[in-house]
Amino acid sequence: MRRLGYVAAKRLALETLGWTLVVLGIAALFLPGPGLLMLFSGMVVLSQQYEWFEKRVDPVKRLAMEGASRGVQTWPRIAASILGVTWLVGLGVFWGEHPPAPGWWPFDPDWWFIGGWGTGTSLIVSGLIGLALLVYSIRRFRGNPYDHHVETERERERHAARHREREERHRSPSGVTRA
Prior knowledge:
Elements: H1 2-30, H2 35-46, H3 51-71, H4 75-97, H5 116-141, H6 148-171
C-alpha cells in the first residue's frame, strides 16, 4: 500500500510540474523568456505519464538533436552561436539598465524598454540557457554527429519496453507493478 501512495504522489508531482512548465512556456512565447524550451520541457515531463505526449516529443527531440549536432560541426557555426548568446545577454543588461527614451521615440517614454530588470533578467537567463545548451552540444556532438537511424532504433526499443510495462501494469490485479 505504501508503494501505491508513492506512485500516486510521484505522478501528481510530475503532472503538476509538467503542466506548469507547459502553461509558463505558452506565456513565455508572448513574453520575454525561453518559451519554446519551457514548453518542450513540460511536454518531456508529461511524456512520462501520457503516451500521447511521448509520441509528440520524440520527433521534436530528434529534430532538436539533429540541429544541435549540425550547429557545432564547424567553427563558424559555433562562433555565430556564441555571438547570439552574447547579444542576448547584452540586450538583457541593456534592457535592465533602462536607458532614457531617445528623441525619435513616438510613444510615452515609459513604454521604452518596458519591464526593466524583470524582462532583462529573463533575457539574460535565456542567454545563459543557450550557452549551456551550446556547451552540451559541443561536448556531445563535436566530431561525433548525431546518427538519426541509431536514435530511431533506440526510440522503437524504448517505446516497445514502455508498452510492455503498461500492458503488465494493466494485467496486475492491484495496478501496481511487483518488484
